[in-house]
Structure formats: C-alpha cells, structure tokens
Amino acid sequence: MSNFPFLSLSNHTPINYHHTPPPPTTFQNSNFHTKFQSLALRGYGESKFASGSCSNAPRSAKARRRKWVLVKGVVGGGKRVNFGDGFDAIVIGSGIGGLVAGTQLAVKGARVLVLEKYVIPGGSSGFYHRDGYTFDVGSSVMFGFSDKGNLNLITQALEAVGCPMQVIPDPTTVHFHLPNNLSVRVHKEYDKFIEELTSYFPHEKDGILKFYGECWKIFNALNSLELKSLEEPLYLFGQFFQKPLECLTLAYYLPQNAGAIARKYIKDPQLLSFIDAECFIVSTVNALQTPMINASMVLCDRHFGGINYPLGGVGGIAKSLAKGLVDQGSQILYKANVTSIITEQGKAVGVRLSDGREFFAKTVISNATRWDTFGKLIKGKTLPKEEENFQKVYVKAPSFLSIHMGVKAEVLPLDTDCHHFVLENNWTNLEEPYGSIFLSIPTVLDSSLAPEGRHILHIFTTSSMDDWKGLSRIEYEAKKQIVADEIISRLEKKLFPGLSSSIDFIEVGTPKTHRRFLARDEGTYGPMPRGIPKGLLGMPFNTTGIDGLYCVGDSCFPGQGVIAVAFSGVMCAHRVAADIGLEKKSPVLDAMLLRLLGWFRTLA
Ligand SMILES: NC(=O)c1ccc[n+]([C@@H]2O[C@H](COP(=O)([O-])OP(=O)(O)OC[C@H]3O[C@@H](n4cnc5c(N)ncnc54)[C@H](O)[C@@H]3O)[C@@H](O)[C@H]2O)c1
Ligand SMILES: CC(C)=CCC/C(C)=C/C=C/C(C)=C/C=C/C(C)=C/C=C/C=C(C)/C=C/C=C(C)/C=C/C=C(\C)CCC=C(C)C
C-alpha cells in the first residue's frame, strides 16, 4: 500500500540479521484462555486476517440473527434508507478509540457502522509497507497489552471479539540518554530500574522510593476496579460501594499532577528533570503538567504487565479489531470521509460523506479530535459551552516529524534496546521542537518486520505545523531532507556511529503528513494543557453538548496514548449502550451525575 508521500532513498544489499529476539507469548485473561489458546497461535499478521473471521468468538444473539447487506448509503442527500431497523451507532474514524468503542458496542448486541476516511484502519496506530519493511505509523510502545489485571485494555478489547494476538515481551520500556551522561534503562523488573536510578542519585533513594511508591498506590487502586463509564451513575456508585477506599484514592488524586507530588519527596534538580522526561514521553508536557493518575498508570504498568509488542507489528491490533467488528455483525467502510454530522432538532442523527452519501443512526460517535468534530463536522452551530471550557483548558499539542528508516543490521550494537529517548546536552530543550528524539527499533523484537539483515529505525521528534507552512514543493522537500539529516547525525554521534552510511531506505513525514493521513487538525498529537491543569479534572468524558453525539479518542478522558484511547472507547461504549437500552440506566441519576461532572470540569 502506497500512502506517505515521503522522500525515499533505496540502496538494498542483503546482509545477515544478527539479533535474537525474545520468544513471543500469547496473553489471554483466564476466562478466555482455553477457548482462544489455539487460535492465538495463528491470530496475527495481515494475511491471516485478510478474509474470514478472527476466530469463532462468541457472537451476541443479535449479531447471530442479523444478516447485513453491504452498506452503500444514500447518494445525493435528503433521502433516508433504513438498513433493517437502522444502525445503533455510527463511529466516525477507526483509530483505536473508535474501534474499541465500536467493537465493545457490537459485542453488547448493537449494530455499528464505522466510517474511515483512509484505506486501512488504525489511524495513528496504523501501518504501511515499503520495500519489504512493515512500518508502524506511530508509537511502537504498547501499554495495556499483558495477561494480568484489569488495566490490560488492549488485550481485553481483542479478546472481546475473539482476536487475541501473540506478543513479544520487551525487557526494557525505554533507554534514556540524557544530559550529563545520565543513561537509564527502564527495566521491566521494578527493583532493577530503581537500583539503576538510585545508582545515579544515591542521596535521593528515599525520595525515589516514595514518589514511585505513591504511583503504585494509585495504580493498584485503578487496577482493582472494573473499568466502565465514569459518566454512568449505576456503575460509578456501584464501584464506590464495592471499593470505597480505592475510589476515594482515585478521587483524591484526580485533580493532582505528577510534578507537584515528585517535589514533595525529591529535591535534586537533575532527578526532577528525569521525572519530567519520564512524563514527557507519554504526555508531551513536563511532570508539573502531567496528571498524576496518567503518570502512575504508565510508570507502573510497564513493570506490572510490562510493555509487549504485537508480533507482526502494531497495525495488527487495528486490523484484528476491524475484523472482530465485522465478525460481530457490524460493518466498516473505508474511503468514507465524513464531512458533516447531521442534526435534527438539536440531536445528532447521522452523517454526510464527501461523496454525498448519508447514513443515519440512533447515535453518532466521533473519533476525530474535538477540534475537528466541533470545528469542521458540526456545521452552523455555536460551540457548546462544554467545548468552550475544554478549549480554554487544553490546546492542540504540536505534531511530529517522523523518519521511518531501514538500516543495515550491523550498525546497531548487539545489545541495543528497542526504544530510546535522546536529549543530549541541555534539559531546557526537552519540550522544544526537535529538542528531544524518540527512537524505536521494533525489529529488535520482531525481525519479520524487515528484510533479512536489516533493522527498522522509527525516529520522531516534536515539530509544529507553523514550521512547515508557506513552502513551495521544492523548499518543502529540501527542508525535510535538511531536518532529517540533522536528526540522523545527532543519533549517529550519540548512539550509532556509521548510521548515515548504513541507510537502506528512508521516508520523512512532517506535521503536514500527519494532518493529511491521520485527519487530525494541524497534525496534532492530542490535547495538552495550556497551563498547569488540575490533573484530569478538566478532561471531558464521552457525552457532548449535542444530544446523541459522543466523542472518543485522545481529546477525551484520560487523554493521549493507545491504552488511554482504548479506555475512552470502553467508557464510550458503556455510556452509549445505556442510552440506547442495551445496559441498565437511571435517567434521574444520569441527569444529576452529568450535571455534577459538568460543574467539576468548570473548576479545572
Ligand atoms: N502520533 C503517534 O505517534 C501515535 C502513534 C500511535 C498511537 N498514538 C496514540 O493514538 C492516539 C490517537 O488515537 P485515536 O483513537 O484518538 O485516533 P486516531 O487519530 O489514531 O484515529 C482517528 C481515525 O479517524 C479517522 N478520521 C478522522 N476524521 C475522519 C472523518 N471526518 N471521516 C472519516 N474518518 C475520519 C482518521 O483517518 C483516523 O483513522 C494518540 O493520542 C496517541 O497517543 C499516537
Ligand atoms: C468520576 C469522578 C469525578 C470521580 C470518581 C473517582 C474515580 C472512581 C475515578 C476513576 C478513574 C479512572 C478509572 C481512571 C482511569 C485512568 C486511566 C485508565 C488512565 C490511562 C492513562 C494512560 C496513558 C495516559 C497512557 C499514555 C501513553 C502514551 C501516550 C504512550 C506514548 C508512547 C510514546 C510516544 C512512545 C515513546 C517512544 C519512545 C521512547 C521511543
């Protein structure tokens, strides 16, 4: 599939591959274990899912009865056609947020139609093939993909539709290369990580243990809950009743940020900068601006469940979910560019596509960002108060410059880790455009992603759209080359001598590329707080100011990240299911809780 319009240099000489990746594991929660054990061993890779079902996953009774005609839609507008008794939900976009919302609804028996602008599912968790390489479009660091606890939301989402995947455990979440030669590996084993960190900061051992210990307190509380919609009162009050201490712990930390808590225990400025870097890689902001619940989630899950890479590439997650959705009797249409959400008497009732087709449903769920949803898809309406508040507290995070490369394998030392974060000399550059460099080498774990004797290097760094505006085609291409050369030469100096002469393949994407292919306003990575936020208090959930319209994805609670958007998908599906009568609900309590939550958000 040819998609990203990058610059491309090809010089392919096969040589031997010299890394031995760890063996893959298949994770299932115990209740799925027997049923999916054999399926798991074959359940990955594009060809496996090209046709037919993921597995003989349990289908809802409604899904079994349903016979779908392939949806074609209504061309020309105005005329409405019912497909059977209509869709329960239309999902705009097939990012992980949209797919989890869609599949969770489908397994509850809802009829779902997912409309995706692009030709494959996944959005920023998609993939593309070039010259024998399988590249992950975005991040290759997968949280929530283990066989343990309640927070393995990616594992659970795949299992729910009978599509578990084989994963390869990563022994190190990330290898930090920081100023003053601070080189820290975040080992999967918590004690090993703490030992390594305290070897640099022996005088702060107590503070380190206290800060990360507080993260564990929050993580354990989160991990003890059944995760559903925090906007659904029967569930929420039920959880408070069953796990009062855990819920009160979470309520206490909800408005707090990691940086303030770190400062209670830690004084060393360099260690505090390290905590900033820890937070920056998952929130694109420093620790003072990172909600403590989110920080705790990622700083502990990497040791509890560990980071696990899906065999065959990250793109397999979206492909499996899309397949699972169809297995459940729902549908997904590609090249379906939604240009507006149709409202009638203030309620969202359907969508219109760029080719004029219209689709109608009881509810509409947008996986486009809130800026795209309310700025482009909702036409001729004033911005709802809730969205105004959201935009007061959050701005669009910058986008990324990304370099996808194939390199000769021998340029990497034998013990190279899969993920690296590089900030060479100056801590103040952490959040600056092109200041810090993210690097993933997924072929360290899965050699099948590259031709023999080659590795994939996926390099990315923050970059804003403003930097790429107003250039001619020639200037744009030249600038891509200059910026990429500079980043590669920094990595060559810091990590891999000889890197630039070992390149077999290279493509460079800019914020414009992300805007074009991910349909995200300004190519944004997601929302980031304008100032110091009150933790997660200001982050909206899934309902919106427009009846029948819900949002899902990274501009919803709890924010950026694949596992975060998977959680927003789970929450959204629960709230929608309650609203269309597939789950219990109490209209009186609903009205009270939604009003209360709306008021909380105004405090942020
Ligand atoms: N950028 C990265 O490097 C990267 C990589 C992997 C994962 N992630 C995480 O994934 C999160 C985003 O996941 P997400 O689920 O919120 O969304 P997403 O942006 O990944 O996917 C949204 C999908 O909706 C589609 N879409 C948007 N507007 C549309 C329209 N009008 N009509 C039809 N389709 C439309 C897009 O084509 C895309 O496939 C990010 O926060 C990030 O943390 C990011
Ligand atoms: C309702 C109210 C008000 C109250 C009540 C209380 C309670 C109960 C509460 C509860 C809560 C909850 C449940 C919550 C939850 C949360 C969660 C789940 C969260 C999650 C999160 C996650 C995240 C944030 C993640 C992220 C991640 C990311 C972003 C990642 C990224 C990565 C990358 C970029 C890569 C890197 C790379 C290199 C280094 C190379």
TrEMBL record:
Q: Where is the Amine oxidase domain?
A: 96-576
Q: Which InterPro entries match?
A: Amino_oxidase, CrtISO, CrtISO-like, FAD/NAD-bd_sf
**Cofactors that this protein relies on:** FAD; NADP(+); NAD(+)
Q: Which domain of life is it from?
A: Eukaryota
**Which reactions are catalysed by this chain?**
7,7',9,9'-tetra-cis-lycopene = all-trans-lycopene
The EC class name is isomerase
Keyword Disulfide bond attached: no
Q: How is it placed in the membrane, per its record?
A: Peripheral membrane protein
Q: MF terms per GO, please?
A: carotenoid isomerase activity; oxidoreductase activity
Q: State its location(s).
A: Plastid, Chloroplast membrane
Keyword Membrane set for record:
yes
Question: Mainly resides where?
Answer: plastid
Keywords of the record, alphabetical order, are:
Carotenoid biosynthesis, Chloroplast, FAD, Flavoprotein, Isomerase, Membrane, NAD, NADP, Plastid, Transit peptide
Q: What is its EC number?
A: 5.2.1.13
Pathway the protein acts in: Carotenoid biosynthesis; lycopene biosynthesis
Entry GO CC:
chloroplast membrane
GO terms (BP aspect) = carotenoid biosynthetic process
UniProt xrefs under PANTHER family? PROLYCOPENE ISOMERASE, CHLOROPLASTIC, PTHR46313
Record family assignment = Belongs to the carotenoid/retinoid oxidoreductase family. CrtISO subfamily.
Q: What is this protein called?
A: prolycopene isomerase
What is the source species?
Cicer arietinum
- Which gene is this protein's source? LOC101494469
